TrEMBL record:
Domain of life: Bacteria
Designated name of the protein: Helix-turn-helix transcriptional regulator
InterPro entries: Metal_resp_DNA-bind_regulator, Tscrpt_reg_PadR_N, WH-like_DNA-bd_sf, WH_DNA-bd_sf
Organism expressing this protein natively: Shewanella xiamenensis
Organism ancestry: Bacteria, Pseudomonadati, Pseudomonadota, Gammaproteobacteria, Alteromonadales
A Pfam family per the record: PadR
Gene3D superfamilies, sorted: Winged helix-like DNA-binding domain superfamily/Winged helix DNA-binding domain
Length: 118
């Protein structure tokens, strides 16, 4: 596998996870930079060109509410989950946990089978 193929596969894998991570963090209000910083601190590096369009799309879908607030001498747009967003977060979290369990089992099966063959 070439490095460009690996990069593409990583991006594909991360795409859905980003939505879940952003929704999870927006249980509390954040503006763009603080949201990006929280994601980075949690181990998810995301550039502004990916984050801001994602947040705008989620807001347009009614999953986030936003408001302008004065903070640190400037106005910033803060985002937070709407009730629809909170409901979706709950459903996606449950789905993620089921998928994660299934993947752990499947990947463990592959590892166990490889170990038994050797």
């Amino acid at each position: 596998m070439t490095s460009s193929q690996l990069v593409k596969m990583r991006l594909e894998l991360r795409r859905g996870v980003l939505v879940l991570a952003v929704l999870g963090l927006l249980k509390q209000p954040h503006y763009g930079y603080s949201l990006r910083k929280q994601l980075q601190d949690g181990g998810i590096d995301i550039d502004e060109g990916t984050l801001y369009p994602l947040v705008r799309r989620l807001a347009e879908q009614g999953l986030l509410e936003s408001e302008w607030r004065q903070a640190e001498g400037r106005e910033r747009r803060y985002y937070q989950l709407s009730s629809s967003g909170a409901e979706l977060l709950s459903q996606l979290t449950e789905e993620w946990q089921q998928l994660n369990g299934a993947l752990a089992f499947l990947l463990g099966q592959v590892t166990d089978e490889n170990t038994e063959e050797n």
